[in-house]
Every structure is written in structure tokens, then in C-alpha cells.
Model the fold of this input.
Amino acid sequence: MAGEPATRRRLEHMDDLVSLCARRGFIFPSSEIYGGINGFWDYGPLGAELKSNLRALWWQRVVRERPDVEGIDSAIIAHPRTWEASGHVEHFSDPMVDCRTCKRRFRADQVDVPCPEAPKQRQVAECDLTDPRSFNLMLQTRIGASEDAASVAYLRAETCQPIFNDFKRVREAARQKIPFGIAQVGKAFRNEINPRNFTFRSREFEQAELEFFCHPSQREEWFGHWRDQRLAFHRELGFDESRLRTRAHESTELAHYARAALDVEYLFPFGWQEIEGIHDRGAWDLTRHGEYSGKDLGVTDPDTKEHFVPVVIETSVGIDRTCLALLVEAWAEEQLEAGESRIVMRLPASLAPIKAAVLPLSKKLAEPAHAIERDLRRRFNVFYDDAGNIGRRYRRQDEAGTPFCVTYDFDSEQDGKVTVRERDSMDQERISADAISAYLAERVEIHR
Ligand code: GAP
Done:
């Protein structure tokens, strides 16, 4: 059964992916037993591993490998003045319209879609809609026991604002000099009017952001540097060049403080969409937080003694969106020999949730197979499965995206070898059981 499949079909309909993700425990609706909650998703055993591997790869490339980048993990709730300084309280809003008939709310710029009440009869634009009104996207909460306005706080709408709050402290604590960056990965929350396209637009999601601080005269140079670094990262994720592109923002699209912005886009079944933004934010953030806090967030050049507010080059990638792009890219339906077919998730081995499955050919071989599993488990996320025929067990691992299956058979008892089957080619080779750990390490670990 080894070799290239006769035909391979890529993902065309998101429904195929959504059902696989729920069935196999990658991602499914949050609070499913209560009917779900719109815009919120839970990651199951496979999804949590995939996400954690992606996060680790980002942290490795953006923080650990760089002497000029420091990582932080800030609180999700910041002082409410943070969001006044950042402009979110005043400006972070979408225009929305309400349907007077069904009482649903839509983004004013997204009404050319079928009406959810009568999808075959009309578009939302043809419904009885109110005039557009501004709708702030920040999620509010209250702190402490009192109910007055002073107790209102916000769940962070982006992970970068606490980085600006912490800029002075981190620079001094880490004894960094300009140019240097501060990074963090974490949850962000937006009260999106129309969450849609599976996890693509959610109300709770994870961002991995880097804010790189430099002298204004170096902004173009650092923008180019980080653009190249981030594109190399997306290539490392294995996206086909034909489904990855960059799109520079027109000057009319730029925020008033921004000098340049570039989106990294992936071709989803629902079209080209942003997965990462690379922005030259100028000195806006530190200037505003300086004004609102009354603290001097400028720096002094030790040589020239020039005092200036650093300019920020930002890279901001969605962890959930990139996971979604990885799942879309990986999904394939393949026709094999003898009329058989399989769904296989061709995830990069370094990001795959399970690195190897240990499969004894018979339950009688459980003991030595469990010994291999125990040994591998110390280093890798492995899975043990002795239920059903071997072909069916391979198929289950194909759907989980497991790059290697290790089969222990009766010959293994004699020659100390196991069969290793590679997911994509389905090629099989016999290798010594003692060598599997090194064999996997070479193929499934992040290259450092
Ligand atoms: N600090 C800059 C910033 O937050 P953004 O373009 O609003 O910029 C950056 O967001 C990234 O965060 C996006 O490219 C996307 O990957 C992710 N993101 C933004 N909103 C999202 C949502 N509602 N659901 C999932 N991911 C989202």
C-alpha cells in the first residue's frame, strides 16, 4: 500500500474539516452540551497539542533564539486607563445594523450574505435594517464588589498593550538597549458582531505579538527585517507558496499613527484572509501611555545623549487562525489502491499532536509494545492502540496527523526490530527497536 496515492483532494468545504475536528477532538464548540456559545471554541486533546506546539515554535524563533527579544506573560486585565490611552475606548468599534424583524445584529459592511432566517429568499441587505451604529468591540467586566462606573474593566482586546505598559520595567530589568523587542503570547477578547468561518473570527482567541522598539531612523530597516523573519516562519510551517501571500495596506487603510502595514494572508476555502499583521506603529503607543500615565517612556542614547520615544515595529499573528490554516493545509482525501480511500492530516511532523503511535500486531504482544511506548513517552507525545485491525488503526492515526506508526509484530520478538510506517508516503521500514527514539527525534522535533 506504500507509494503516492492515485488521487488527492484538498479541502474545499469547511464542513469536512469542522466535522473531522469535532470527531477526532481537535476543536469543537465550547459548552457543546448547552448548544454551544457563538464565537467560543474548545481545543480537545489533539488541538491542545497542536496549538501548544505552534506556540512553542513561535516562542523559540521569536524569543529564545534572539538576544534582542524578551518574553513576558502579563495579566489579561490591565488598568482601564490603558485602553483610553490606546484609543480602544473611543475608536475600537465596528459599524453595525440590527434587523427589526429577527432582532439579529450584523456588521454593516457584511450584509451581502444570506439572511439566516430565510437563506434561500433574501440577503441580509434586503431585510428591514436599522441605520448603522457604532458598536465597541471590547468585552467589559467589573472588578470588586461595587457596581459603579469606577469598577469597569476590559478583557484585553490585543496582547500588545500590556507590553507598552511594561516597556520601562522590562528594559531596565533585562538591561536591554534600543533596538530590542518584547513579546508575549496569550488570550485576547473581542465582542465580534459576526463570529464566523469556524475559529477564524472568534470572540476569544490567542495572539502571539512582538513589539520591537527602535530609533525612528531605523524603522524601515527593522520593518524589512521582521517581514523577512515572519515570512520565513510561515514557510517553515509548510504552507504552499501558492496559498501564502503578503498584502501591503493602502495609505487610506493605515491607522493615522502607522507608517506601513503588511498582512500575511492564507488562501482558506472561504478566500484570502489575514493570519498575521506586520505594522510600523510609530511612536504612538509609548507617547500616549507616557501622556496618560505621566511617566517618561522615552530613552536616552548613551552616545549622542539624544532623548527620544522609540518607534515600534509590530508582528502580530493569530495562534488560532494559524492553527486553522495548518488544518486546512493538512487535510487531504486520498484514493488508494483497491478502491480504498483515506482522510489524512498532513501536518508538519514538528507540529503534529501525536508524534508516533505504538501498535502491537496482536494483544499477545502488549508487554514489549508497552515497554517501547513507555520509553518513547519520556520524550514524545505517543499513543498506544491495540484495538482493531492494523489498517483501521493506521487510518485513525492518519486522521490525527500522526507522522509515524511503530508496529511490533511476532518477528520483533526474534530480531528486535519494529516496522515504522511514515504517514504521507505510507512507506514502511524495519528498524531496531533501540533506535526508534533517535529516529523520531531527528524527524519530529523542532530544529533549534
Ligand atoms: N496588535 C495588533 C492587532 O491586534 P489585528 O490585525 O487586530 O492587530 C492581529 O490582529 C491578528 O490577531 C490577526 O492577524 C489574526 O490572526 C488575529 N485575530 C484578530 N482578531 C481575531 C478574531 N476575532 N479571531 C481570531 N483571530 C483574530
